[in-house]
Amino acid sequence: MIKLKNNNVKGNFRNKLLWSFVYTALTSFTVFLVVGLWNRFVLNPTVTSLESSVHPVTKVPYPGISFCNMNKISKRRAHQLADYIVDHTGENYTDVMKSIKFLGQLYDSNYDKNYKTQIDNFQEILDKLQLKIITLMRTLITPCEDLLKVCHWKGVRVNCSDIFYMRLTFEGYCCAFNYVKNTSEWRMRREKIRGPESGEPSVQSGLSVLVNNDPEDYYYTIVPSAGLNVHVFIPTDYPDKSSGNLIENIADIGTENFFEVVPTTVAAVPDVMNYPVDKRNCLFQVEQLTQFGVYSQSDCFVDCRIKSMMTLCECIPFTIPLSDDRTVCTLRDLPCLDKYKRKWISLAPDARGEITLTEQEDALFCPQTCYPSCEATLYDVSATSVPFYKYANDTFCSFWSLHNCRSRFDNTTSIHIYYRDRFHNLFKQDVVHYWFEILSNYGGIFGLIIGLSGISLMEILVQCVKFVKIKL
After folding, report:
1. Phi-psi category of residue 234: left, alpha or beta, with phi > 0 → left and psi -120 to 50 → alpha
2. What is the reported pLDDT for 275?
3. What residue ranges of the chain have pLDDT lower than 70?
C-alpha cells in the first residue's frame, strides 16, 4: 500500500508540472499575440481602399488649366520697349533689341559669361529707368486677349477674357483658367477669387479654345518650337512642374488637340488626424501652412525651393509669385541661378532614407518632409493631336462659328480639354481599427486563451487538492 501511495504522489506531481507549463505557455502566447497586433496597428494605423468606382466627375473640381505661349518675348512689344529705352537713354537701337533677349534667360536661367559685360550694362540701364523685372516680363509676353480668340465652356461660347487671366506659373506668365490660388499677381486685381469650377464629361461639355499664334511675332523661345504649352494641374496649387502634380503637353500650330482628363479623388475620415503624421504619411490642409497658404505637397516643395534660392542666390525668380521688387532675381543674378538650376529641378530622397553625398549636392534636399495631402484630387491626361488638313470639315467650322475657317488654319491651334468618363475612382483613407474593433479583437483573444488557461488552472488546483489529501 505504501508503494502505491508513492506512485500516486509522483504522478500527481508530474501532472502539476505539466499543467503549470501549459498555463505559462498559453499566457505567454496571449501576450505575444496582443503585443504583435498592437505593434502592427501602431506601425500602420491607416489604410487606403477603393470606396467607389462610380463616383460622378461632376462632384470633383475641374482641373486648373494654363496656356503658356512658347514665345516668351513678343517682337512687337520688344520694339516698343526698345523705343522707350532709346528715347530716354540715347542707346543704340540695335544693341538694345539684342539686349532685350537677355531678359528671356530669366525663364531658363541660362548664362553665357561671354556676354557678362552686355548683361551687366543692360541691367544698369533698367535700374536707371526704374524698369522692374516683374513688370517687364508681364509687358513683354503676348496678352491673353491677343492669344485666345474663341472660347467655349460647357458647350456655351463665352468671352475668353471672362474666364482666362494672366497668372504666374513655373513657366512665367500664362493664360490660366480655373486657377483659384490667391497669389500676388491676382491680389493686384483686387477681385475676389471664386471657388473652382466643376466639370462634366464629353468634349462638348468641356473647355474648348481656339488659339491664334503669330510666328512672325516670335522673338525668344526656351525650346526651338512654336505653339502652346498646355498645363493641367490641381486648381488650388501653384502650377509647378518639379513638384510632380502638373502635367504638360505641347500643342503645335495648325493642330486640333484633345486632352482627355481622368481624375482620381482621395478622401480621408477625420479620425485619421488623431494619429501621428509619420504613421499616416499625409497632412490635412489645416495642419500646416506654406508661404502660399493652406498646405499641399506641391506648395511645400516650392517652399523648400524658395528657401534654397534665398540661401544660395539671395533672390527669388519672377516666375514664383512670392517675389517682389526687393527679392526678385535680376540679370545680375543669372550666374548664380545658372550654377544651381539643376539642383532646383530635382529632389533628393526622403530625409528618412539614406542620402549619398552626390545626391545631397546635386539635388534639392528638404529637411522638412513634404507629406502628400490626405485629401486631394489628382488628374491623369491622355493627349491626341491631328493636323487641321486631315480634320478640316464643315462640322469643325460650325463648332467655332467661323466663316471661311478652312483658310485660317496656318496660325491656329484648337484645344479641347474634357472629362473622358462620367465616373471616376474615389479612394478613402480610414483607420485600420476603431477602438471598439480593437476591444473586440483583443477580447476574443483573451477569451479564447484565458479560457484555456482557466481550464488549465482549475486542473492544477484539483491536482493540488488531491496531493494535499494524500499527504494527510
Report:
1. beta
2. 82
3. 1-44, 185, 187-193, 348-362, 389-410, 432-472
The pLDDT score that the predictor gives to residue 390 is 46
Residue 280: per-residue pLDDT: 82
- Which pLDDT score is estimated for 163? 93
Give the pLDDT of residue 71.
94
Distance CA 249, CA 252 (A): 10
pLDDT at 8: 54
Q: Grid coordinates 500643342 are at which residue?
A: 251
Give me the count of residues in the chain: 472
Give bridge partners of residue 175 from the DSSP assignment.
Answer: 67, 166
Give the per-residue pLDDT at 146.
Answer: 93
Residue 304 buriedness (CB in 10 A; 0-12 / 13-18 / 19+):
buried
Residue type, 270: P
Alpha-carbon gap, residue 64 to 39, rounded angstroms: 42
CB contact at 8 A, 323 and 315: yes
Distance CA 308, CA 291 (A): 14
User: Which three cell numbers, joined as nine digits, stand for 147?
Assistant: 492669344
Cell of 208: 474648348
Question: Nearest to residue 22, comparing CAs of 375, 454, 317?
Answer: 454
d(CA 227, CA 255): 9
* Three cell numbers, residue 98: 539684342
pTM: 0.78
Give dist(CA 128, CA 443) in Å, integer: 80
Kindly state the cell numbers that stand for 415.
Answer: 484645344
Quickly count: other Cβ atoms within 10 Å of residue 159's Cβ.
11
The sign of the dihedral angle between the CA atoms of 231, 237, 239, 244 is negative
Q: Which amino acid is at 162?
A: D
Q: How far is CA 137 from CA 168, 239, 391, in A?
A: 11, 18, 36
Give the Å distances, CA to CA, from 186 to 65, 198, 238, 315: 16, 21, 12, 21
Picking from 376, 386, 382, 377, the residue whose alpha carbon sits closest to that of residue 421 is 382
Distance CA 330, CA 327 (A): 9
Give the pLDDT score at 468. Answer: 47
Largest Cα span, the chain: 133
CA-wise closest residue to 411 among 208, 215, 225, 251: 215
Which residue bears the cell 477625420?
270
- Cα distances from 37 to residues 138, 166, 181, 434, in angstroms, run 59, 55, 44, 14
Residue 31's pLDDT is 62
* Helical ranges in 44-109 per DSSP H: 75-89, 93-100, 105-108
